[in-house]
Amino acid sequence: MKHQHPGEFGDWVLGLEQWQAFGTFTFEREVSTQTASRCFEDCIVRHLPGVRSFYSVERHKSHGGHLHALFAGVSSVNTKSGARCRLLVTDLDGVNLWAIWKYRYGRNSVEVPNDSMHTARYCAKYMTKDAALWNYNGVVPFRARETEIERLAVNIFPGCSVVQS
């Protein structure tokens, strides 16, 4: 895929859904592209299981990766005015994704896209890069992945469940 034109992928991504929000998600510590991918999918599975999303991981040579994501299938999007005429998302379906991500992983920004085509192309351009990771849960939902502690707890205490905050 890396040899295709980013605009073609952007057109494809734009055609997948009516995208309602766009986010950039970073990490306080260096993480691999695989870890960035896993963290994002786990966050969506746990907190926004009915929301569809497309994401791509932007890889940095010096400090791992961060994500760009699009969200669709959201019943309610609440916003507030931000800097540079941006419309910042305060919650998706009552979930403050900004606060959840900030508490667990690092800085982020979730907003309503000003230009859907530009935003889709921006997210899709990382599909054309070496070692790119991307995923879309519109057809097949992201699957829940157990953390090591959850897996061990269930093995030691059959029938238990780990409460997530």
Key traits:
Alpha-Beta Plaits, 5-stranded antiparallel beta sheet, single chain, alpha+beta
SS class = alpha+beta
What percent strand? 25-35%
Strand order of the largest sheet: 6-1-3-2-7
Task: Write down the secondary-structure element order.
Answer: HEHEEEEHEHEH
Rg over CA atoms? 16 Å
Quick check: average pLDDT? 81
Shape, principal axes of CA atoms: globular
What does this structure look like?
The chain is 32% helix and 25% strand. The protein is α+β, with helices and mostly antiparallel strands. The protein has one domain (6-140): Alpha-Beta Plaits (2-Layer Sandwich). The chain has a 5-stranded antiparallel sheet, sandwiched between helices. A two-stranded antiparallel ribbon has the order 4-5. The longest helix has 15 residues, at 33-47. The model has no long low-confidence stretch (mean pLDDT 81).
Q: TL;DR of this structure?
A:
The protein has five helices and seven strands, in the order αβαββββαβαβα. It has about 160 residues and is an alpha+beta fold.
